[in-house]
Write the structure tokens for this entry.
Amino acid sequence: MKINYCGGNFMYENIIEMIEKKDFEKALNEVEKIEDEKWEKYNLKGLVYFYKNDLEKSKKIFEKGLEIEPINSDLLFNYSHLLLALGEEMESWRYLMRMHEKDWAVYDILGDIEFKNRSKASAIKFYKKAYDLNQTEEMAKKLLEKRKIIKKNEKIAFFCLPGLETFIKPIAEELAYEYDVRLIVSKEEKEIKEGIEWANIIWIEWANELAIYITNKFNLTDKYVINRIHRYEVYSNHIKKINWNIIDKIITVSKHIKNNLIEINNDLTKKIKVINNGVNLDKFNFNKRFNGKNIGFVGYLNMRKNPMLLIQIMSRLNEKKYSLNIAGDFQDITLKEHLEYIINNDKVDLIKFEGWRENIIEFLSDKNYLISTSLNEGHPFNILEAMALGIKPIIYNYYGSKNQWPENLIFTTVEEAINIILEDNYDSIFYRKWVEDNYTFEKMIFQIEKIVLKKDYIEKNIKHFKFIKIESSIKEFLKGETFSNSLQINFSGKKPLISREELLKDVSKDKKVIHFGFADHLELIDDKRKNNIWLHDKLVESSNKCVGIDINKEAVEYISENLKIGDVYCLDINKDELPEEIRNEKWDYLILGELIEHVGNPVEFLEHIRIKFKNICNKILLTTPNAFRSINNYFLQKDIEIINSDHRFWFTPYTLMKVLTDAGYDADSVFFTENYQNYTSNQIEVLENHPMWRNDLIMIAKF
């Protein structure tokens, strides 16, 4: 809480001293002497009740102060601090972002809120700003630790034609805090090819000539491909020339652009996600505005922008001395000629063409209204930015507008536009709040992170993963029909990198599975469930049906009675009969996760299992630590053995095949997995190219 401001006012200093000494009643008596119209009264009074722990009363008092001074930094900071105490973190974020001058502590809090609730990449941005303003060892350590936590291994290449990078550049910069990113603004084949070869995620900005070229020229089978569509593309022939088969996800900036795209190609429906544009509120400082006579227009001047309607509206307002300033270049010389003729002929003399303005914030600084007369839009930034500043927008009723903006700000006729401008209703806070609730830059980044670059990318990786089939020539050695004292089996070649959990979820999806040895160590179960890493939960979630079998009676009883998880059985496979519920089903897989390395006689153990399950189960799937994992080689070079003290064996692909064959199974396929989430991009690349160096060995065999 900021209780150390006073601006040299002796009375305020005394009140602050009383608050610090917890002499609250005396402080309140002094506060009541301050004039009601002064924001300081409500700031100090709110502080008193905050420290008295009467948070709801403190909240109402701060809000009254904000009605007087909505952008006062002390009020905003203290009110935000109160909201944090009430657990309203995103509301706290809203008011902190309204502060014009933010110190390092504000950015640090913004980072904490963002990190916990929304975009991890945006959180790092705020932490970095905090560090830039407070370059202490503590802040540097926090920034590095947070970035290490979130750093992902995916490499994203953003492709955009020169001159069209305005919208994608800030997105690429933000995601670079979390991913390895390259922004390739080029139409040169060499640069494009290098970017495609480097990345595993391809983002093509705009569905234009570049999208046509990339999707038809390059083999992108092992890439995750994203295309973002803004507006004009759905009205061009480009859409029909793009190879949509290799695009995994399409982002449209609005729902109505999505609908337009579906009308053209209904097969794309499942690929489309709507992610609206977002405004960086840290750049667009809110100020409370009022009715006035200054109207702004921002955008290129062409027929789609419907400037004739703009002139009709201004001609009606001319007598009332409303002025219109236009920031934008003409894209049609005949339109320029026509507008100048109409303006001069009708004596609409308060219209000024300012040409293109780089600094839109400066242009809008004295405006009371932003008018948009466009016939067609995607999700226009000019309206978003004006509302973020607290300016009232006057919006023509283009297709899709009512899904984006408050209806009371939308007009269809000239008369309706005039009424919206002349009415008394003007609510700057409402306009700003509309953007805060719906269209922040951080929300957009969060949607990209969560909807596109995580869940769907993993699905793409899994989609392209295939088990390595065991060749029949190898089976001759497994059965002892052929012998070699230096047999070589080649597992080389780039393979998708997925984790053991991802693989098992994919294999068991919509299948009937028996999870053998499901229980885990009793003392670890609750912690693993809390962290969402208990394998049995994952298999139950992904499979059509999953039963668990384990010899650990105490663990099975705990899972059944305390966790209320059904279809779990305590069985000694060597002695006990299978329950009728298991015997009477046909099962796709029997899954043994990290179990075989604990068994004293794995051949005998697997033989018992085969006899027990061969008539009811199609395949067995085993996972075990890989003897060739890279960490073993690392410690080998130091003459150190690293081992789980409960393990009895290390398995290589061949030795596990041999054990399965000796136990009467037909070894079918193999794969290697690694929990890669916290690895660097270089580590990922090495493990993709050298699958045998991964931690886990997965094998499937037929009964």
Residues 441-463 form the longest helix (23 residues). The chain has four domains: 10-148, 152-274, 294-439, 465-702. The two ends are 68 Å apart (CA to CA).
